[in-house]
Amino acid sequence: MQFETNRLIIRDICRSDWESIHTYTSLPEVTRYTAWGQNTEEDTKAYIEQVLASQQEQPRQDYQLAVCLKNNGTLIGGVGIYVKDTNTELGYVLNPDYQGKGYAADRNAT
Fold it and tell me: Which of 15, 4, 19 is nearest to 68 (CA)?
């Protein structure tokens, strides 16, 4: 699964993404308001395995997607879409180095 905007590629997470994801999921300022807390390397690797398993579910209920810069492929965050019955929940997290640059709010990014 992959979506593109003018500046971003939003795609399925793959196993090799774990280090980029761990870069921000291990930071207390990122995880302060999350349900999952500050990750250890083992936590992040377990998360990746969980995501890969959910990608195979039929019907697919959870979508954990990597947010990457279109110009160089750098993974800067993630988007989660959770489907349960007739409800859907959406969440996102960005590496602090890329916050405040309009990636989540810029009307020109689409």
Answer: 4
Between the CA of residue 24 and those of 17, 29, 52, 69, 91, what are the distances in Å? 12, 9, 19, 15, 15
The string of pLDDT tens digits covering residues 56-71 is 999 898 999 999 999 9
Q: Measure the CA–CA gap between 45 and 28, rounded to whole angstroms.
A: 18
pTM: 0.89
d(CA 33, CA 99): 15
Q: How far apart are CA 67 and CA 21, in angstroms?
A: 10
What's the token pair of residue 35? 């349900």
DSSP-based three-state secondary structure for 55? helix
Strands, E, within 45-101: which ranges?
62-69, 75-84, 87-94
